[in-house]
Amino acid sequence: MDATSVIIERRAELERAFDAFDRAQGGHHRQIRTLRSIAGGLAVHSTIEQELLYPAIRELTGRHDRRIERHLEQAHLLEPLLVELGGVLPADERFEARVGLLGELFHQHARDQEMELLPELRRRLEFEDRVRLGKELLERIHELQGTPSR
What we know:
The chain is mostly helical and 150 residues long. 85% of the residues lie in helices and 0% in strands. It is built from 5 helices and no strands.
């Protein structure tokens, strides 16, 4: 699987987790369980981007521009919101609003990535390089999740 497919697959998994949260409204236990899944997925997604994807784009394409920095900062905006959510109970009126905001920020990050960075990756990297990067991303994902590589 090439790097762009790995990133798109991770995004789709997170989108499904946010949808599951929306369906779990009112069920506090399910909301907490789903939020933990979202938090874990975002942590993995952010880590593979910061450790592998963005450095690869810079190194292999020779690009170090504002778009990459913007995507990094956009991803960092998710982190403090996740930390705040850890201290808010589902019964708190702000809980669902904050999870909704987290979802909106992630959706915007994913859209921007799919419109700007992934096409850049496809244009600038040979297919073999994208496949190699995809393998590295998958290995790191499995390592972070504590699951065996496929």
